[in-house]
């Protein structure tokens, strides 16, 4: 069951050994430059690098299967929506129109396909980096890293609690689901789709109630310990930078500079192969 839990997974890879601050800065810098650029060459290079880092972090497919499927579904729906509402946006951006299919308002062009390819790569490029960051970073260390870059420690601790709670919610869902199946509700793939939907809806109410109960317990415990009384606090999980941390930040800066260089030679954010 634990293999299906999306959350922090302790391991001994070089990625796990990095501090949360260096991983957070790498994630923020690389994500921003990847979102700004529309150069397919640059985005592809960043995607390959992020996949290599994902592989070296030794994250199992069972740990991220659900979240990756949801992201892919969302990405596909968004690409379809972009085409439906603006099928000529690619031709407008690149200044040319190479028609593939004449479909009236929905005329398909090479420029539109290239534009949506860039969008798809943008969705994909941040997925490995974000998964590596979330799964290889201890939530307490993550809150410490947020505080170190200037975020209020109250907000940092709230984010840490949210990350810690993700595996708990999934575990509660599985336990409630097994209890419902023991009472005769078919929630597995063997059951009909509408039956499974109905069963899932019956799980949500006890799941929400149990979550609210846990939130109340945690908030009361924090109040009893006078959390938030002082303006600053120390962090038990805070660590000093190692050589790899500095190299990670340098790599992030180099990626940003490379993205800026690509935009300079392209004359803007968009790489136009149709000129």
UniProtKB/TrEMBL annotation:
It is found in: Membrane. Keywords: Membrane, Transmembrane, Transmembrane helix. One of its GO terms (cellular component) is plasma membrane. Pfam families: CbiQ (PF02361). The keyword Membrane applies. The chain crosses the membrane at residues 24-54, 66-85, 120-137, 245-263. It is a multi-pass membrane protein. This is Cobalt ABC transporter permease. It comes from Philodulcilactobacillus myokoensis.
């Amino acid at each position: 069951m634990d293999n299906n839990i999306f959350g922090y997974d302790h391991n001994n890879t070089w990625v796990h050994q990095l501090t949360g601050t260096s991983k957070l800065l790498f994630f923020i810098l690389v994500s921003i430059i990847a979102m700004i650029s529309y150069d397919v060459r640059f985005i592809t290079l960043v995607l390959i690098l992020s996949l290599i880092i994902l592989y070296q972090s030794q994250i199992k497919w069972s740990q991220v299967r659900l979240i990756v499927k949801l992201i892919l579904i969302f990405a596909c729906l968004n690409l379809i929506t972009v085409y439906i509402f603006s099928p000529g946006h690619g031709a407008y951006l690149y200044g040319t129109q190479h028609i593939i299919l004449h479909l009236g308002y929905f005329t398909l062009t090479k420029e539109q396909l290239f534009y949506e390819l860039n969008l798809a790569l943008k969705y994909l490029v941040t997925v490995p980096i974000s998964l590596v960051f979330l799964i290889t970073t201890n939530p307490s260390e993550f809150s410490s890293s947020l505080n170190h870059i200037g975020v209020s420690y109250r907000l940092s601790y709230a984010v840490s609690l949210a990350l810690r709670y993700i595996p708990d919610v999934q575990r509660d869902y599985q336990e409630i689901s097994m209890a419902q199946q023991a009472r005769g509700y078919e929630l597995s793939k063997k059951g009909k789709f509408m039956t499974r939907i109905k069963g899932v809806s019956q799980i949500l109410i006890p799941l929400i109630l149990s979550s609210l109960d846990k939130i109340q317990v945690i908030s009361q415990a924090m109040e009893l310990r006078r959390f938030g009384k002082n303006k600053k606090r120390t962090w038990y999980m805070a660590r000093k930078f190692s050589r790899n941390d500095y190299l990670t930040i340098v790599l992030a800066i180099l990626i940003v500079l490379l993205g800026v260089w690509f935009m300079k030679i392209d004359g803007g954010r968009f790489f136009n192969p149709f000129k």
